[in-house]
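User: Please predict the structure of the protein below. I'd like the answer in structure-token form so I can feed it into my own downstream comparison script.

Assistant: Understood. Taking the following sequence of 330 residues as input:
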Amino acid sequence: MYYNRILMIKFAVIGTSGASLSHLRGLQKSNYAECKYIYSRNIDRARKLAKKFNLIPTDDYNIILDDSTVEALTITTEPSRHANLAIKALDFGKHILIEKPIDSDIQRARKLLEAEKSINSSLVVSVISQYRFDPIILKMKKQLEIGAIDSPFLCEVKMIWNKTDEYYSAGNGWRKKYGNVLLNQGIHLIDLVVWFFGYPMEIESQTYKVNQNIDCFDTAIVKLKYSDNMYVDMVFSTAFLYSEPFQFNIYGPKGKLNYRNEIHERFNLSSNIQVINNVLNKILNRQEPPIFLQIEDFIHSIIHKSPPAVSLSEAYDVLNVVKECEKDFL
């Protein structure tokens, strides 16, 4: 797409977590965005990133909100602060991109959803769901939509990772307290399932912790039921010795779709598959990380005054699935 090169959306990044680096680099890469501030309650952390990215450091959120030149924020703090920071920013007319999840608390998330509905509709609000921008995932979704494997009857998801005690204790230690495997990692794949198949009819879960040094669960088994005997089986853990590549498989009567884009078929597929492959070839050849593509989508939505690829209500639904699963943990 072509835009006037003079047009630049000024941003502030709120938070200095590890995720903030991806946001800063994504904004730096864009031709239509310019980051002005980096905010943290710890001014030394803000100054460190400010020096690296040539930004203005601040520990006063109101300075950013009062700056009319700043049109958009990305929020990368710990999840428990996401919704409250976003609601306040909406009152000042800022566009908002929130690092996943929308919040750690469903009630705060609902308040943000209600606040978004009551504001000027020209404001763009979205939540990071970068797996949706993965070119292989995009291709799988297209193939599913054109019926390449017929109606799916089973989706299989597996995410087995390793997260150390140092990881859980980093920063202010929020991951150790409530950063369970679904809220902090599995939510990416739950988002894909809800994006592919919609909100489930039934949710069953079993959650437990293997690492006894944390206060939240690090392992979960989740089953989702859809209409027409369609099921999703998911396994998540961060307690294994090492991290394995995640699995995302969809089974249908005429074949299987998996994350490596291999299609195992009983019959010859329609030539439409080749058409889809050709259309998506340009996407597949792009080298940008998916999160950069979502940041660019957010920027384009601001410029065009159009809805972002990921809506706040979608992010709320995904968090709601996670919260239903959390009820199992005692």
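That's the full token string. The mean pLDDT is 91.
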